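Narrative of accomplishments. A recurring question from our advisory board has been how the design workflow behaves on a single, concrete structure rather than in aggregate. To address it, we present the structure tokens for one chain from the evaluation set, followed by the sequence designed for it. No filtering or post-editing was applied between the two.
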């Protein structure tokens, strides 16, 4: 027999949906489960869903088992035989919500809206509880957006995340024994007599495994939940069709409901949730300061889930900027690296453990983001940040947001109008929620459609930003995710992303170094170390920056970027050779009073290449370019400090910084890892190949002679100086 013994326990919040504590523990004194006796617990009323909507899930086990998978045709056929239940539920939903909206309208008419705000918020929460799990799930998503809903509603709807009235523990223990096929006291040496938390689909008990002594969380599914949700989805899907037809909307709302419903049905299969948890742990459990609980598959069935018990506090209740950044990095990996993502990251499912780590809970609602869409999403972010709205319009076609037959020019113009103001603030200030809001009219005008797969991605990002905004009102998820996107573009081996990077950096064969500088700058903001996160708003030691840049460029993943850098350095040295030969030839002609027959000419492209090589040196050295007064010569911005004439054309050859300014770069080299030092030793050979045998040279022999002469000349100078604009 299990006997209840009062025993206060510490705060236990993980693998549950609250941070409350439980009061008692069952202790075993006899093995016979038929003699389990539960001491009187605190009396509680029947939960609101059972009280007001109990008729919805009063099915026999055989009927309920027929609704374990989402199949709208099967659900429709099932309830076609029960028209009275469908009618009763439809009337209940419309009358209950209709009454609430009518009362809110009367508050506005009577100018009492502000006065009754909190009362109406509490009433809405009670209504949603009465209507059941489907509506609670919708409210949970809304409650994660403090930037979109008023504080009073936020406070009330947040209670739906983990403080829902539980169902009877006696029923729960019967389900555990039936599902696992053995007496409860054979499986567990201890189990809490009451749930430590209750959610829309189930409730959680703390227990101790008899076999290993490990403390675990045991989640038990609310009885009849499949039939209740099936009926509500059938009604919601019907209403979605009416709304689309009446509003002449382009998005297939029924497909969106189907996608959401499919994920919700998968969430109700605890065996699938356990498999999701195992996969999530394998993919992301090794990320620094991320904790994913271990699943106990042997003690898990379709309606009972057993997993490792964790303790901590809700992330939303702890102002920890570092863990928010860890969450952003983990979400980036989920969405854009592996495509397997947590589609329900509301505050009840994210925990700060007592040792300062981020714990993910509840793996029922997961999403899959295909590779083609991941690449398309990354390209869209790149084009948005770089204001390439024409390419962005094509990305929207790739993502399935607009039909291929749309007028691309008109869409480009519309996107420019929508995004220009937001992007002009800088990528760090772009709000994901604001972008979605600004897109509203444009989506309607150009027949935008939200693909079913994209609805869960949007929800995941929106919920994550909502949690972050609750901690820091100025936080922008897109601004914090973009550094990881920039780093992925610079290091990914995907042929498509390589092509995207080259297209981004080159236009009509001209290297756009400003875009590379932007990508480098943003990628260096991608940090997960706590000390770097805490210091990123303050000054950063230049030596640390240089080391980060070198570590990044010498990494094996950055091979493609190194190729581009070497190509541009070779072009710069080629231009430097021409400039040096021009300078020396003119000096000799002046000194010995004769003119060379035909000195090499400096083109505008040579001047740009000279400027680029200096900016690349500054970029790699972690230095900033000085802003000197400049004028424009032949359309090229130049400084007034040093102008010389070559072949009758005025060309800027402003001096570079002295070599001494690049000494910090050399001081960092011994501190690099051994493999990166080896990579550094291979660079001269790679550079020589680009320098002396470039595919772009018009005359290889002339190029070799010019470069040899210029390098020899520069080597003899004590104070080596280069040129820039």
């Amino acid at each position: 027999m299990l006997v209840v013994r009062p025993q206060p326990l510490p705060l236990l919040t993980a693998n549950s949906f609250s941070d409350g504590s439980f009061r008692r523990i069952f202790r075993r004194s006899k093995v016979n489960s038929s003699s389990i006796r539960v001491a009187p617990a605190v009396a509680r009323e029947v939960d609101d869903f059972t009280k007001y909507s109990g008729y919805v899930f009063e099915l026999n086990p055989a009927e309920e088992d027929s609704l374990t998978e989402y199949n709208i045709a099967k659900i429709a056929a099932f309830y076609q035989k029960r028209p009275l239940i469908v009618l009763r539920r439809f009337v209940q939903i419309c009358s209950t919500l209709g009454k609430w909206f009518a009362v809110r309208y009367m508050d506005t008419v009577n100018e009492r809206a502000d006065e009754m705000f909190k009362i109406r918020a509490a009433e809405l929460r009670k209504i949603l509880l009465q209507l059941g799990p489907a509506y609670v799930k919708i409210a949970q998503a809304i409650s994660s957006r403090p930037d979109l809903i008023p504080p009073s509603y936020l406070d009330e709807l947040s209670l739906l995340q983990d403080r829902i009235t539980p169902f009877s523990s006696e029923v729960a223990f019967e389900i555990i024994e039936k599902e696992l096929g053995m007496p409860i006291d054979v499986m567990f040496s201890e189990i809490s007599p009451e749930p430590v938390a209750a959610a829309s689909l189930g409730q959680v008990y703390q227990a101790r495994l008899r076999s290993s002594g490990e403390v675990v969380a045991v989640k038990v599914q609310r009885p009849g939940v499949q039939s209740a949700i099936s009926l509500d989805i059938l009604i919601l899907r019907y209403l979605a069709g009416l709304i689309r037809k009446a509003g002449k909307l382009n998005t297939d709302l029924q497909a969106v409901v189907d996608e959401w419903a499919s994920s919700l049905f998968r969430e109700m299969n605890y065996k699938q949730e356990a498999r999701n948890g195992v996969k999530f742990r394998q993919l992301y459990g090794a990320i620094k300061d991320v904790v994913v609980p271990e699943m106990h598959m042997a003690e898990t069935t379709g309606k009972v889930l057993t997993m490792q018990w964790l303790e901590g506090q809700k992330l939303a209740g702890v102002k920890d900027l570092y863990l928010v950044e860890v969450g952003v990095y983990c979400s980036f990996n989920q969405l854009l690296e592996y495509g397997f993502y947590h589609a329900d990251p509301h505050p009840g499912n994210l925990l700060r453990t007592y040792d300062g780590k981020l714990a993910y809970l509840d793996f029922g609602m997961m999403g899959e983001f295909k590779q083609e869409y991941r690449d398309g999403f990354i390209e869209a972010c790149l084009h948005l940040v770089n204001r390439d709205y024409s390419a962005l319009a094509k990305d929207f076609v790739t993502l399935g947001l607009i039909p291929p037959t749309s007028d691309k020019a008109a869409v480009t113009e519309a996107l420019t109008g929508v995004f220009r103001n937001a992007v002009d603030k800088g990528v760090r200030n772009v709000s994901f929620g604001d972008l979605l809001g600004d897109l509203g009219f444009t989506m309607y005008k150009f027949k935008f459609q939200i693909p079913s797969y994209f609805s869960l991605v949007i929800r995941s990002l929106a919920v994550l930003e909502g949690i972050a905004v609750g901690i820091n009102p100025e936080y922008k998820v897109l601004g914090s995710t973009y550094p990881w996107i920039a780093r992925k573009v610079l290091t990914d081996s995907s042929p498509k992303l390589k092509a995207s990077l080259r297209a981004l950096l080159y236009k009509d064969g001209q290297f756009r170094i400003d875009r590379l500088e932007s990508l480098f700058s943003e990628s260096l903001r991608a940090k997960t170390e706590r000390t770097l996160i805490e210091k990123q708003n303050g000054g950063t030691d230049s030596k640390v920056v240089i080391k980060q840049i070198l570590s990044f460029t010498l990494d094996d993943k950055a091979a493609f970027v190194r190729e581009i850098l070497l190509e541009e350095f070779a072009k710069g040295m080629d231009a430097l050779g021409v400039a040096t030969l021009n300078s020396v030839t003119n000096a000799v002609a002046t000194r010995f009073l004769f003119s060379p027959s035909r000195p090499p000419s400096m083109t505008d492209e040579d001047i740009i290449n000279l400027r680029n090589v200096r900016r690349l040196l500054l970029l790699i050295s972690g230095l900033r370019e000085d802003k000197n007064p400049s004028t424009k010569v032949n359309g090229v911005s130049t400084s007034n400090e040093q102008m010389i004439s070559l072949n009758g054309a005025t060309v800027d050859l402003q001096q570079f910084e002295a070599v001494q300014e690049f000494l910090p770069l050399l001081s960092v080299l011994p501190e690099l890892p051994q493999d990166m030092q080896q990579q550094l030793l291979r660079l001269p050979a790679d550079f020589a190949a680009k320098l002396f045998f470039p595919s772009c040279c018009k005359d290889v022999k002339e190029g070799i002679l010019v470069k040899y002469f210029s390098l020899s000349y520069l080597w003899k100078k004590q104070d080596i100086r280069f040129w820039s604009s």
